[in-house]
Amino acid sequence: MADLSAFPIATRWPAKHPDQIQLYSATTPNGVKISIALEELGLPYEPHLINISKDESWTPEFLSLNPNGKIPAIIDPNGPDGKPIGLFESGAILLYLAEKTGLLIPADAARRYETIQWVFFQMASVGPMFGQLGFFHKFAGREIADKRPLERYRDESRRLLGVLDDRLKGRKWIMGNDYTIADISLLGWVRNLIGFYEARELVGFDDFANVAAWLERGLARPAVQKGLTIPARAKV
């Protein structure tokens, strides 16, 4: 049985199955990337809900694994050389899981780097921009009288949707016929933009037919549907 005692996070969220990958997350766009990937890959894992509404990601135990204080994070008890490894940042975790299994990423070096660049596109552009748009459109930022920040993030979000729409022209997935971690990295964010953030009309989402068709294909995958609800939210 794996020994996770070196990880303080395992004291606050004890592992019932320490030989499985431990996932510390919530059902946010960044969080569901990893549960979707784990479901797609068929890797055994144990999810732990980090209640971000109660600031649990800022507890000392969580920060000991992820000093950035954001979900998700994982512990793989069977990491490189058979030793446990803890990782944070969703893009890094996606890449790790893909390379661990040899799945969801092309074996060809050039296509592998092309896939990674689209993961970075989400991390550096789509995630931050969509997140800020959500803040100014749905959350506290909507009370700000000056609408220039909202307009700036709306316009930038439209630009990014255009980039993605152009990429998907004539393609089933970001990498053509190959469903990869690039798709997984983006699906939750696009879904949130038009769903949870209620910004479909604001960004003119229906102008981006290729993105809309890709999103529909992605959401139809059983692993995606399951991963979107893991870890389960606590019952009130």
From TrEMBL:
Gene3D superfamilies: 1.20.1050.10, Glutaredoxin (3.40.30.10). Residues 18-105 form the GST N-terminal domain. Signal peptide: none annotated. Residues 108-236 form the GST C-terminal domain. InterPro entries: Glutathione-S-Trfase_C-like (IPR010987), Glutathione-S-Trfase_C_sf (IPR036282), Glutathione_S-Trfase (IPR040079), Glutathione_S-Trfase_N (IPR004045), GST_C (IPR004046), Thioredoxin-like_sf (IPR036249). CDD domains: GST_C_Ure2p_like (cd03178), GST_N_Ure2p_like (cd03048). It comes from the Bacteria. Belongs to the GST superfamily. This is Glutathione S-transferase N-terminal domain-containing protein.
